[in-house]
């Protein structure tokens, strides 16, 4: 008797209207960080090795950071329960197969998946083909 794996979860992803930047700064240096609360996503993470910032591209601290501009962000409709499994895998898997790199930010309530803006249309189509619902801006 063979067991069948459950179907991967299907989610609704909403495209955020801004274009984002992913920034890397030295955590040991004082920085002037843009004001939080502007835009639909602003995430600042400090580790022993880096200070990472995801923010609207217009707020990227170009003089103080290595900045990777040009990201489109999709937010998974949430909140997501902590007991759920496979949400990110169901998104990352098809995008990996389509050779579309991602950058992910997770929060208490949900996940944010960023793709390069020039690959956004391909990412939307790939996710839709995988059974997800993508709600554009």
From TrEMBL:
Record domain A9CJY8-like N-terminal: where: 18-61
Record-linked InterPro entries: A9CJY8-like_N (IPR049447), CASTOR_ACT_dom (IPR027795), CASTOR_mTORC1 (IPR051719), UCP008459 (IPR016540)
Occurrences of domain CASTOR ACT (ranges): 67-127
Pfam families attached to this UniProt entry: A9CJY8-like_N, ACT_7
Designated name of the protein: ACT domain-containing protein
Species of the source: Nonomuraea guangzhouensis
Biological classification of the source: Bacteria, Bacillati, Actinomycetota, Actinomycetes, Streptosporangiales
């Amino acid at each position: 008797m063979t067991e069948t794996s459950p179907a991967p979860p299907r989610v609704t992803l909403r495209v955020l209207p801004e274009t984002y930047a992913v920034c890397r700064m030295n955590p040991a240096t004082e920085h002037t960080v843009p004001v939080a609360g502007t835009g639909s996503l602003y995430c600042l993470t400090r580790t022993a090795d880096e200070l990472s910032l995801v923010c609207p591209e217009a707020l990227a601290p170009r003089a103080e950071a290595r900045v990777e501009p040009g990201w489109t962000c999709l937010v998974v409709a949430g909140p997501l329960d902590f007991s759920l499994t496979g949400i990110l895998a169901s998104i990352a898997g098809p995008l990996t197969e389509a050779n579309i790199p991602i950058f992910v930010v997770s929060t208490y309530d949900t996940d944010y998946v960023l793709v390069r803006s020039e690959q956004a249309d391909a990412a939307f189509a790939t996710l839709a083909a995988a059974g997800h619902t993508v709600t554009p801006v």
